[in-house]
């Protein structure tokens, strides 16, 4: 079969796939036959490029939120309540996005990591402003953070959150005893 006829058939199969006239699996199978496997490889490479771009955009967004959180805490003279509300909104936004995109194609654990970092900053900030840098309240807040990391790690099967929570608890216990 010449290339012109193959291209006509391939275009027709693609149209069937887009309009869902034939199930996806059949269209992929036919495309693999008529393109000798080249169509599937091209599609996978393009999809991987889009996924990397999405992950990079999400990572830059979260790093920007963390930078803004640090700026709000240490370099502004905003009222304590306003600073707390801004940081709480950041944590809530990241948690909402993480839960929302947990079943999607977006790299969702990065949302949880960003929320955990900002929540840790918020905890230390609250200890400083509300409790006057009292050591035992700081320990309590850090225990709560580590507990939340453990819960998130177990709930979403994120090994690094589980390990971070466990190691954080061990380090806190050692630092209290010593």
UniProtKB/TrEMBL annotation:
The keyword Membrane applies. The chain crosses the membrane at residues 56-74, 80-99, 106-124, 136-152, 159-177. Keywords: Membrane, Transmembrane, Transmembrane helix. This is DUF2157 domain-containing protein. It comes from Heyndrickxia coagulans (Weizmannia coagulans).
